[in-house]
Amino acid sequence: MGEQGSDGGEKTRKTAKKATAAKKGTSAKKAVSAKKAVSAKKVTAAKKAVATGKAVATGKAVAVKKAAPAKKVAVQPPRDESRTALVRRARRINRELAEVYPYAHPELDFENPFQLLVATVLSAQTTDLRVNQTTPALFAKYPAPEDLAAANPEEVEEILRPCGFFRAKTKSVMGLSKALVEDFGGEVPGRLEDLVKLPGVGRKTAFVVLGNAFGRPGITVDTHFQRLVRRWQWTGESDPDKIEAAVGALFPKSDWTDLSHHVIWHGRRICHARKPACGACPIAPLCPAYGEGETDPEKAKKLLKYEKGGFPGQRLKPPQAYLDAGGKPAPPLGAV
Questions:
Q1: Lesser CB count within 10 Å: N end or C end of the chain?
Q2: Helix (H) or strand (E) run with residue 334 in it
Q3: 69-117: per-residue pLDDT in tens?
């Protein structure tokens, strides 16, 4: 009985061990299977990702590209400038130019409002120098509006021939002289609304006369003025009247006449239309258009005109302040 019980117990223990081992084996197999399943899922996901990437690269997944387009590097927009900053920069430019051209003045020779009015009308589409070389003979023969109004047109045309468009200009100066005699007693009026009624006289001419013959502020929007204020981004307007209004709003009215001189002088001497002398420009740090012209200082110096380049100016009889600053008077017509 004892041996049989001992053998039976031994068999029972062996059977229990086998069962436990079997359970462990089953659990281990399940764990391996689970790991394989997870790994398989990861591989499948990875393959799908690769496949998707290839599809996008080859253009197959067009819908995906449209849904999530690649970001492009945006071009930097121009630097925004507040109204206050613009006013400050514009006024600083004017102050800088006032130091560079302390002797700035109208570059037409004249002794009275009538002479300035006629000379300004003649300056259209020609240089002030050519006008200054032409008007001495004109004013010597016709010193007053009454004289020019009664002149022989052919004789006036011959005198004005060097100015170009001499027939149209003869008609204008004789017409305005006649209007001065008939409507204003032979005197040049000192009001804008009266000046612009005269033949050949527009706002630009009127402001030249008002500012320089009567001391009344005005902005002269000639080709130089238009070019520079646009380069400096004071305004984007192209119409002269709109430019006048936009620039006038940046400055006190008392500055308008001198401002016109400073800008025009700078345009004639340094900031030229075709090849500005950027490398010799005193306001280069304030100019948004710096680099449009020659930036090499030595090469830029060779582009300077009139007194800045060591050459004669445009007036035969310039103010003493200009001569004191080293300016040279222009030669008379026909001089070598």
A1: C
A2: none
A3: 333 333 333 468 999 999 999 999 999 999 999 999 999 999 999 999 9
- pTM of this prediction? 0.75
Alpha-carbon 53 to chain mean position: 48
In angstroms, the CA 6 to CA 230 distance is: 116
Run of H or E including 51: helix 2-58
**Identified catalytic residue from 109, 128, 204, 308:** 204
216-235 burial: b if 16+ Cβ within 10 Å, else e: bbbbbbbebbbbbbebbbbb
CA atoms within 13 A on the CB side of 204: 23
Buried b (16+ CB within 10 A) or exposed e, 240-267: beebbebbbebbeeebbbbbbbbbbbbb
The answer to whether 165 and 122 have CB atoms below 8 angstroms apart is: no
Q: Which DSSP letter does residue 285 get?
A: G
- Choosing from 128, 222, 255, 258, which is the catalytic residue? 222
State how far the Cα of 326 lies from the Cα of 279, in Å rounded to an integer: 22
Largest interatomic CA distance in the chain: 166
Residue whose C-alpha is closest to residue 157's, from 140, 139, 170: 170
Judged by phi (left if over 0) then psi (alpha if -120 to 50, else beta), residue 24 lies in alpha
Question: What are the pLDDT digits (tens) for 243-292?
Answer: 999 999 999 999 999 999 999 999 999 999 999 999 999 999 999 999 99
pLDDT tens digits for 278-307?
Answer: 999 999 999 999 999 999 999 999 999 999
Q: Is 222 a catalytic residue?
A: yes
